[in-house]
Amino acid sequence: MTALSAASLGSWQRLNAGILGVGELPAGNGEPSATATRIGNFHYRAPNGIAFIRDDAAAFVINPGGSYNAGTVAADDSFHKIIFSPATASPHLRRVEFQWSRMGDVIVGRLVSSDPGEMSFSLQENWPGFSSQFFAEADGVKGTATLPTGENVSWKLKALPALKSVDANQFTVALYGPTKPTYIVAGFEDLPSFGEIDNRLAEAEKAWEGRRPKADAPSGDILLAIANNLNNSRIYSNDNKMVAISVSRTFSVGSPNAAPYFCWDSFFNGLLASLDNPEMGRQTVRAILSYQSSDGLVPNYAHWGGGEMSKDRSQPPVGSMCVWKMHLHWPSIDFLREVYPKLALWHSWWLKARNAKNDGLLQWGSSNGVLQDAQYETGWDDTPHFEGVDGVKMVGQTMNCYAVDLCSLWAMDAHHLALIADAIGKPEDANRYRQEETDMNGRINAKLWNEMLGIYCSRFWDREDGTPGDFLTRITPHNFYPLMCRAPDASRAQRVLAVMTDPTQFWGQWILPTVSRQDPLFLGQTYWHGTVWGPVNFLVFQGVKHYASPKVQAVFAQKSVHLFMNNWLADGYCGENFRSIDGSVDGNHNYTWGALMCLIGVESIVTIGDNGIPKVGPGYNEPVELTNLPIGGKPHHVSFREGKLKITITS
Predict the structure, then answer these.
(1) What is the secondary structure of 607-619 as a DSSP string?
(2) Fewer beta carbons within 10 angstroms: which end of the chain, N or C?
(3) Measured at the alpha carbon of residue 492, what is the angle toward residues 318 and 511, in degrees to the nearest 5?
(4) By 3-state DSSP, what share of the chain in percent is helix, strand and coil, each rounded to 5?
(5) How far apart are CA 68 and CA 590, in angstroms?
(6) Average pLDDT over residues 124-137
(7) pLDDT number for residue 32
């Protein structure tokens, strides 16, 4: 393994001088231009279709239905390639590939099928308050709507060969097999000729391939997997006039404005999107923070079921870490300044609402006083760390035990808030947060270290006579969280890692199960009982990078990448979680944070340090080429071969 040369490092530092706030990216770098028209697969029920939205007041949606696996989607919607089995089609039609590209306020597209046949697109628009109508025309479909201003909006669609049938609810196209495409043009402006489509799509795909982040490795393109899953999860809501990344389209049941913004999921989505679509990542963070209460609580969920939100509880405080990592990929001092007050208020909320003993050690809770709601706050809905553990109960608004995971997360949050405060010119705040980080780590070491087990543990409050409460000894990855906030010294860290890498407990072919393999709950393999989860692996990996040997780091990353990519390449699944006994996907098959397993692979090769300088990592035990990886707002080429890393700025 080799580090950057001194000359290369100096050049890198000069080119990236703005990373910590000295400079700023030029306007528009990585940002979509403002437009009155939105075009994309933004309708919650039409992942394979297209929504055309004008002035946030009218919309027209075409939807072929069918199976859904994340297709290829450029961040700016300049190129889409969706492959699916259609829902309404000739019985023998197995597969359709739908390619399309945006040109101004119109799209050009083509359909290539596995077999001759026909397929129908439904015509729909059901955003509340929007009204649009569709009519058959001699050469296609016409849509009309009236804006609140009284202005009429017209939309058209044509096909070659001509549509087989059309009415106010759907249209049907003929498909001719793999050698003869069916062409479609649609939108608000004069429609282009069909003769332009092949060249336009070829040019759009070539341009997208040239600028997109990509990875070349035996296990597959982990950067494409991240981008496709995040870009396919963008959903438009007209109640807040926002496109944001939701966890999965299947959670948007009953209303197009019901796509939920889960708390820690949204921050992870913002981070994942920052590699390819930074402004969409920022918009997703804005979406969840827009529901923050006046006292600082960022809700467990918001915007679900038509605007519902959880007012009694929050979720793990990963926001500052994600926002800072987003900034390291695509710097935006303006965005840091925008969200810093909200992140700081959330940070202080924990000490006010979840510090029942007023001693600086935190507990999960809910203002409802309901234990299940407090478990929801942990992010692990049926968490084995606390659920069913004898003696764990609610006392007032919190559990009656110090949470080793929450204390560690809060210390890590202080660390990243300090970095943000420094970047936006608030050194006094930064110093205060660094002291908070130090103080919390001290309390974790003094109170939550279990010498007998050689690991950090959650612990019941002190007894009435002042003697220390008992440790909670069901071991889960929560017990590894102090690694990520750098609480342990080297000796304690190695003891923690020994538990993590013990194949009879957490190590093995598929890692990390959410409860020890020795625990009876492990065999359940349901939800958080023994399965593998992307956010858990990602958070633990932050600590593994601080303390573990390069070999352990590389194996951890390799196991994470392979678990994800095996399912992604075989079935197109981005798993909500994975079974740790056979590596198959469990839970939702298209859930965004599964792609965190791929981000572990990226960070195992090159981690961007707190100072913005890339750090050499051990990789994940295979040769890798990363192209257009954003670091400091500039695309980089990263080569990792035979243990040697080379980083160059590509433009």
Answers:
(1) EEPTTS-EEE--T
(2) C
(3) 55
(4) 35, 25, 45
(5) 9
(6) 91
(7) 40
* Residue 262: predicted pLDDT: 97
Residue with tokens 């994975």: 578
What is residue 124's predicted lDDT score, i.e. its pLDDT? 86
Distance, in Å, from the CA atom of 86 to the CA atom of 251, rounded to the nearest integer, reads: 21
What b/e readout covers 288-306, taking b as 16+ CB neighbours within 10 angstroms?
Answer: bbebbeeebbbbbbbbbee
Helix axes 534-547, 263-273, angle to 10 degrees: 70
CB 356 within 8 A of CB 366: no
| Element holding 37 (H helix, E strand) | strand 37-40
Determine contact, residues 627/646, Cβ cutoff 8 Å: no
C-alpha to C-alpha distance for 474 and 518, rounded to whole angstroms: 10
What pLDDT, in 10s, does the model give residues 359-371? 999 999 999 999 9
Q: Which two tokens stand for residue 254?
A: 């009953």
Give the C-alpha separation, 181 to 28, whole Å: 36
* Token pair 């706050």 in the structure block, residue: 377
Contacting residues for 404 by C-beta, under 8 A, at least 6 apart: 444, 448, 456, 457, 458, 459, 478, 479, 481, 482
Name the token pair of 596: 């965190």
At 294 the three-state DSSP class reads: coil
Alpha-carbon torsion angle 459, 463, 466, 468, nearest 10:
-30
- Kindly report, residue by residue over 371-410, the tens digit of the pLDDT: 999 999 999 999 999 988 999 999 999 999 999 999 999 9
Contact criterion met (CB below 8 Å) for 576 and 564: no
Task: State the DSSP code for 417.
Answer: H
SS3 state of residue 302: strand
CB 561 within 8 A of CB 594: no
Q: Scan for tokens 């001088």, then name that residue.
A: 17
Tokens of 567: 């399912």
DSSP state of 330: S
- For the chain, the maximum distance between any two Cα atoms, rounded to a whole number of angstroms, is 87
pLDDT digits (tens, 9 = 90+) for 63-111: 999 988 889 999 999 999 999 998 877 778 889 999 999 999 999 999 9
Q: Which two tokens stand for residue 89?
A: 């089609």
Token pair of 422 as six digits:
């420094």
Helix (H) or strand (E) holding 558: helix 550-571
Taking CA atoms, 232 is separated from 74, 95, 118, 228, in Å, by: 10, 19, 25, 6
DSSP-assigned letters across all residues of 116-145: EEEEEEEEE---TT---EEEEETTEEEEEE
Using CA atoms, how far apart are residues 642 and 635, in angstroms rounded to an integer? 23
